[in-house]
C-alpha cells in the first residue's frame, strides 16, 4: 500500500508534511519553531497529542484532525485491558480530551467521531481488542491519505480559477503544514504553479502567531513559488492599487449557509476584496462543511491567551500588565465569498443549495 508521503512526491511535486507515522510513534514537526529550527517531536500517548494540538506544535484544521485521529490510535495501542467495552470507554474519554484542545476547527471532532465509529463497528463485528488496535491504526492512516488526495483534487479544481500572471493574496497558512500535505488554499497555488502558470503570492504575515511570514513564506520558497509578505494591515493598500487579482484562503469550519470561520483577519480581507471587486475564494475539503451548524453565528470561536499578543519570543511589546484580546478566528459571511473550492468541485452561491446538491449526489 502506498503511503501519503510517496503520493505527495509522485503526484504533488512537493513532499512537505507536518507529520510522520513510524513504528507506532507519531512524529510532528514543531511548527512553533519553523522556519528557524527543524525539530521533530515523538508522541506516544493521546495526552501528548492533545497537548501538542493545544500548544500549537501542530495547527491548521485538517492537520489537527489527522493528528487527533493518530491520538485515538495511540490511545487504543496503549490500552492494556482485553475488553472491547472498556476500550470503547477509554477511547470516548480520549475523544473528549482531544476535542476540547481547540474548539473552532470541525475537522478535529469529525476525525475523532470517525475513529470512534470505526472502533464501535469493529467491536460490534466481533473483532478482538488486538484487531481493533490494528484497524484504528489503519483508519488514521486512511484519514491522512484521503486528506492528501482531496487536497490534490481541490488544487486541480481551484487552479481553473487562477489566470496566468495572477497575484494571489492569502491569509495565515492553509498549506502543506496545515494539512496532511499539499494544502488547501496553497494546494490551489501549487497546482497552478506546477501546471505552468506564472503566479505570485502576497502572504499576510498573520499576527500573532505569524503563520504567514513563517510558514506560508517558507513552504512557497521551498517549492520555488514567488512570494512576498505584507503586514496584515497592508492588504487594502495593494488591492486599491490593482496589485491583487484574487484572494484564496482556507477554512476551519463552514456552516450550512456558507459562512466561513477562518484565521482572525480573514473577514476584514473579504470586506476589502468586495470593496475592490476582487474575487474571494475559500478552499476546503467537503468535510470542513458542518451541516449541523446552520450559520456562522453558531460556530464557537476560540480565544487564546493575551500573552500571545503582548509578547514576541518572551519580549513584552507594550506597557507591563497591558491586557490584549486574542480571538483567533472570525466568520466571513457567505455574501462576501465568490466561490468555495472543495474536493467535490467548486460551489457557487447560494451555498445551502449547492451543499445539499453535493450531498444528494454522493448518497
Ligand atoms: O490557528 P491556526 O494556525 O490553526 O489557524 C489556521 C487557519 O486558520 C487556517 O487558515 C485553516 O485552518 C485552514 S488550514 C488548511
From TrEMBL:
Q: What is the name attached to this protein's record?
A: Methylthioribose-1-phosphate isomerase
What does the record give as EC number?
Answer: 5.3.1.23
UniProt entry tagged with the keyword Amino-acid biosynthesis: yes
Amino acids binding substrate: 59-61, 102, 211, 262-263
Q: Name the NCBIfam families on file.
A: eIF-2B_rel, PRK05720.1, salvage_mtnA
**Could you confirm whether the keyword Amino-acid biosynthesis appears in this record?**
yes
This protein's source sits in the domain of life called Bacteria
Sequence similarity: Belongs to the EIF-2B alpha/beta/delta subunits family. MtnA subfamily.
Q: Which residues cross the membrane?
A: none
Which keywords describe this protein according to UniProt?
A: Amino-acid biosynthesis, Isomerase, Methionine biosynthesis
| Enzyme class at the top of the EC tree | isomerase
HAMAP family xref list: Salvage_MtnA (MF_01678)
Enumerate the residues marked as the site Transition state stabilizer: 172
SUPFAM superfamilies from the entry?
NagB/RpiA/CoA transferase-like
Give the matching InterPro entries: IF-2B-related, IF-M1Pi, IF_2B-like_C, Initiation_fac_2B_a/b/d, M1Pi_N, NagB/RpiA_transferase-like
The active site of this protein is located at 252 (proton donor)
Which reactions are catalysed by this chain?
Answer: 5-(methylsulfanyl)-alpha-D-ribose 1-phosphate = 5-(methylsulfanyl)-D-ribulose 1-phosphate
Instruction: State which pathway it belongs to.
Output: Amino-acid biosynthesis; L-methionine biosynthesis via salvage pathway; L-methionine from S-methyl-5-thio-alpha-D-ribose 1-phosphate: step 1/6
Protein task: Catalyzes the interconversion of methylthioribose-1-phosphate (MTR-1-P) into methylthioribulose-1-phosphate (MTRu-1-P).
